[in-house]
Amino acid sequence: MSGVEVRYGGTTALTGLDLTVRAGERVAVVGPSGAGKSTLLRLLNGSLTPSAGSVEVLGVDPRTLTGRDQRRLRARVGTVHQQLELVGPLRVVHNVNAGRLAAWPVWRAAWSLLRPQGVPEVAAALAQVGLSQRLYERTDRLSGGQQQRVALARVLVQRPDLVLADEPASALDPALAERALTLLSTSVAERGGTLLACLHDPALALRHCTRVVGLVEGRLVLDAPADALGPGDLAEFYGMSR
Ligand SMILES: Nc1ncnc2c1ncn2[C@@H]1O[C@H](COP(=O)(O)OP(=O)(O)OP(=O)(O)O)[C@@H](O)[C@H]1O
Predict the structure, then answer these.
(1) 31 Cβ inside 6 Å of ligand 1
(2) Which of 26, 84, 162, 200 could form a cystine bridge with 195, CB 3.0-4.6 A?
């Protein structure tokens, strides 16, 4: 993306943003609350268009796509949303399968609501996140951390080329957070994919990512390889004093 600015009414969320992420990178996006991290991810999953500047995702400008091409790009980009965006009254299997809707023909997506399709893959993803027994449970009966793991399983079955994860471990205990990041990073690495993750925990960011970009008040103020940084270098991005 280059020269990107995003304004929400009178609020400028991002300004003068130039950023290129290459295939295979795992990028931690860090910054204090309100810095523009989620806005950056929204630009990349096509749910937001910039007020100025240009954005390319997997080599194309999402604004130029319609119909089948748009669905194809959606299938290649998976998001773990900060607000999870699960459908509470639906069974877990349906929420996990939602990760594959853009890749399925409409008839298959509709039929899957009656007779869940691809159950073995869903079960395998749920096993990876430690929720093997919950396949047919109503999603809103799960705890916050369990629902976050359903959202992770959704992106695991999708197998996208680009994973955007907005605080994907915020409701998880340290062991589960470690496991979640390991799953995300190994699943993208297996197919040469790319990960951008907003992370609250500097240690997780440095352990699982190859590059760290820092935003403050909508501006890019840090862009460095993870192995050149220590937790102290990230303190200001997490509102901690050095
Ligand atoms: N839909 C919206 N309407 C108006 N302002 C918005 C909207 N979404 C975000 N903003 C504003 O844009 C700025 C950046 O928000 P964003 O959610 O990208 O920050 P963030 O770094 O992800 O924050 P957090 O760590 O708290 O999730 C903030 O000032 C926020 O108030």
Answers:
(1) yes
(2) 26
- Containing 16, the helix (H) or strand (E) segment is strand 11-17
Q: What is the DSSP letter of 86?
A: -
185 shares a domain with 141: no
Does residue 34's CB lie within 6 angstroms of at least one atom of ligand 1? yes
Ligand 1 touching residue 133 (CB < 6 A): no
**Per-residue pLDDT reduced to its tens digit, 44-79:** 999 999 999 999 999 999 999 999 999 999 999 999
What's the chain's length in residues? 242
Domain count, the chain: 2
- Cβ of residue 35 lying under 6 Å from some atom of ligand 1: yes
The Cα 122–Cα 91 span in angstroms is: 12
| pTM for this prediction | 0.95
Q: Report the alpha-carbon angle 141-147-150, nearest 5.
A: 120
- Mapping DSSP onto H, E and C, the string for 47-79 reads CCCCCEEECCECCECHHHCCHHHHHHHHHHEEE
Return d(Cα 219, Cα 168) in angstroms, integer: 23
Domain of residue 174, residue span = 1-58+161-241
The ipTM estimated for the assembled molecules is 0.97
φ/ψ of 221, rounded to 5, equals: -120, -5
